[in-house]
């Protein structure tokens, strides 16, 4: 143990020179739910409606992740380097994947997720995009400078691969494909260069027929979708800042969906509803339109889950409808390259705006008025809204009579809340065939009778480890007679802890015992009831530390008067060993006093010495070298200056020294 030294001679010199030493905001909707995807990239998204599964290809990770409609992973298909395009067979039995790293198209069974085939492509390299049309699987393939279109016919006993299906429509790299499986329309656009040409093929016959090839608005096509009736094409590319629409007959422009920024994806539901996706850090990411209607039905904005100011963005080609149109799946990524599958429910339905406005305060059992407004295109007067009241006696909610909107969408109702405290009125519209459900709420603070709650022992000081009984007293209340007593010891390492919870006795008292090892803030809490307000009472009590000291190196002990002294030869150094309740960084205050000619004790010096982790500190006092000197020493904990403030100031006992020859 390290021993510290304090000079008595210095302290004697000091003696003769000096004796002194604390409502609902409107705007773009967010995704209804989302799940993180364990992928490094996103190549394509596919929905299997029959089995309610979502497939996401990961080119960088060389795998396909399969989830259910809630985003829960059901399978991971590995060993697929640079896998990108995905397509589902018409009977939903097989998923086909373009695996550029293998120069093959791989098929996977949709119930077992086992690989059923791996198709060589007759020398075609790097297949990337897939489309199904007229009973054949069409693929865009080719490294840079060697792009083309091929087909894979699986209808016979053996697969048949045909290359060079692009005819006169040449492509630098593997083209982006879109199709209508029933009408035989296949559309291709350059994906790797700034070429703004689209090509439309009729693939319903024995050989593809190039219907039209034409320059259009846009380049570097990220996605292409063909309407279910085979008449329209919608493209997504970095420019222009909208999703243009073209005729499949002659690529004449039919209109545009004003999505507002860089196009990233597009998909069309079986009923023709268009989901236009954009790559936008600071605005909506998904925009919903009815086919041929240029005003938005609904839009979604992704949250910011990364470390930069811009929010998450949509992956290229990262949109896919469920076949029944009930959901739209979107893959997004943040600034840390973390990908998420976002599930958008009832996206084809417009989202009305609903407001609820209740008074901030109201008296209990007296009438109050709640009003608001339901706004949305096509909502008629008399639209019914449900009303629910939640309070301390009806936490799950009590249904109130429904209310109907007026011609302008406004509504109002009156209610006399029987319970006080926080009362919430929730108003909900259930939705219809074209409008999504929506709800909103507002809260009223309803008056309650003031409650009296007291707690004793405030300001009291106790010895270390004393078991102290605190008494909380609760005055008159309506029903609730339960009180909680919490103890929060000083120091960040000790949490606020529930000591006791229970009903008060017939006198209104509840007692709890606290082990006082630190200064402690004790709090009594009454949560209130339907007519009595909540209440809180605090009491801060203080605890000393445990301190003891022993003297060594003396040759005898004896009394001078009634005081016990330790006798030392004038050249022997006394040693004071102190044990004190430990706390990290704590120091003891070592104090020396000398008995003066005026027969009074004078403080001649003090110093702080750190405790070791066992709470011990040893100090050696340098001998004075003179006889006839009487001194006394002690160790103390001083709140604030001993390194912490978790206990109350505590002084150890004086130890008396007498220096002789």
From TrEMBL:
Q: Where is this region: Disordered?
A: 390-412
List the signal peptide residues: 1-22
Provide the alphabetized UniProt keywords. Answer: Signal
Q: What is this protein called?
A: Ig-like domain repeat protein
Please report the organism this UniProt entry assigns to the protein: Streptomyces anatolicus
